[in-house]
Structures are given as structure tokens and as C-alpha cells.
Amino acid sequence: MKSVYRVAVELIKSTRGQRSTSARGEMRRELETKVLRLPPTSTGPRVLQDDRADGAEILSCTARALKEGHVVGVPTDTIYGLACLAQNSEAVRKTYDVKGRNGHKPLAICVGEIQDIYKYCKVKVEEGLLGDLLPGPVTLVFERAEVLNADLNPFTSLVGVRIPDHAFMRRLCQMCAEPLALTSANVSSHTSTVAVHEFEELWPQLAVVVDGGPIGDHSRLGSTVVDLSVLGKYRVIRPGWSRRRRRRKMNL
């Protein structure tokens, strides 16, 4: 016959195990990733359609996850990306953790409209030039405005800004009403991804993964990065994906 002491010990261990299992279950539920597929158009690429309720629900779900401070996986016009609210310092930190990214490598921001750039950047070029380049596969680097989160790239006075030529991403920015911090959806230094299954190892750390189908021509190049922070000058920091890009001589 078991002693009262031994029975009590076994009971305590059993209770702890149940609590531990319950806690792990709650954690799994909290980290459960929603993989949401955008509806296809008749021409092939997947974009958000106004007349599709499921597309609107995906937009709403993704925006809600961002506002709750989560990191999400999203399609762009070049490659898949990881996004969070740029003004949320904890979310920015999570994004670095998800990628295993060096903390001294900057994140770009993504906005929905050209006029949004003027709020977060000190623009030194004419608006017509921005209109020729954006939306599109280009990241423009400007001096950052004071309103931008000081914890985002605190090691530099510059910031890269994007308006992807992608309806879902533009509307997501508009719904969040603030910039998204954006980086490629892959482990740092690994190959860029053009389909959601290619960064599946990151899914457990993401609240939402938006499947927009295969992207582009599979070149795996990110956006072309151009420094426009110096008045009257420009510098191509990184050549990138340029198909369908509008070309114009930069008369600065």
C-alpha cells in the first residue's frame, strides 16, 4: 500500500504535468499560424479583389495580426517578405529574431501612397520622379523624419521606403494607417523566397502567412535600392528586379 506521502507526491506530479500540457497547448494556440490564400484573378497572379469577401477577410485578419504586434509573411511584387508595424519597437525586434538578422542591418518601410512618404522621410526630389518610380520594385532611400520610430534602424539617419506594385500590400498599409517594416521572408543570408512553402520553417513564428501564389519570374531578386538622400545626386546601392519598371532619366 502506498503511503499517504507517496500518493500526495504522485498527485502533485500529475497535476504539474496536466498544467504543463495545458500551458503548452495554450502556447501552441497562440503561435498557430494562419495560412491564407489570396483568390486568383483571370490572368493568373493573385491579388486582392474588391468583390471577393474572402480577400477582404484576409486583409482584415492580416491587419489585425499586425496591430496586435505580430510578424506576418506577405507577398510583394518582387519576393515574399516579413512585415510588422514599423512604429512598434517590440514587433521590430521580433522581426530580427525571426530572420536571425544582424541588428545592424536596416529594415525598409512600406507605405501605401506616395504622400505617405513625405510623413516619414525628408524627400529632396520632385514628386513627379516618385510617381514615375512608384509603385514598383524600387526601394528609395531618404533621410528619415523624426516621426519614424527611433528604434527602427537607430544606427542610421536614413531609411529605405517601398510602395510595392501589389494591390494587397498597398491596401494593407492603408488599413494599418502607418508604415510597415519590411524585409525578405527567409533566414538571414539564405536565398530569397518566391513561394510560401519556401519559408515554411519560419511559419511557427508568424501569426499569418498570406499566400499570393508564385511571384514574378523566379529571379529571386529583391527591389532595386536607390539612394536619393543627397540633393542633386543618386546612387544605386543594389540592382534588383526590374521587369515592367518604368524608366526615366533621373534629372535631379
TrEMBL record:
Membrane topology: Peripheral membrane protein
GO molecular-function terms, A-Z: double-stranded RNA binding; L-threonylcarbamoyladenylate synthase; tRNA binding
GO terms, biological process: regulation of translational fidelity
EC identifiers of the protein: 2.7.7.87
Subcellular localization: Cell membrane; Cytoplasm; Mitochondrion
Keywords tagged on the record: Cell membrane, Cytoplasm, Membrane, Mitochondrion, Transferase, Transit peptide
The reaction(s) this protein catalyses: L-threonine + hydrogencarbonate + ATP = L-threonylcarbamoyladenylate + diphosphate + H2O
YrdC-like domain boundaries: 56-242
Enzyme class: transferase
Gene Ontology cellular component terms for the protein in this record: mitochondrion; plasma membrane
Superkingdom classification of source: Eukaryota
Keyword flag Mitochondrion: yes
Main function: Cytoplasmic and mitochondrial threonylcarbamoyl-AMP synthase required for the formation of a threonylcarbamoyl group on adenosine at position 37 (t(6)A37) in tRNAs that read codons beginning with adenine. Catalyzes the conversion of L-threonine, HCO(3)(-)/CO(2) and ATP to give threonylcarbamoyl-AMP (TC-AMP) as the acyladenylate intermediate, with the release of diphosphate. Participates in t(6)A37 formation in cytoplasmic and mitochondrial tRNAs. May regulate the activity of some transporters.
Assembly mode: Interacts with RSC1A1.
Similarity remark: Belongs to the SUA5 family.
Name used for this protein in its record: Threonylcarbamoyl-AMP synthase
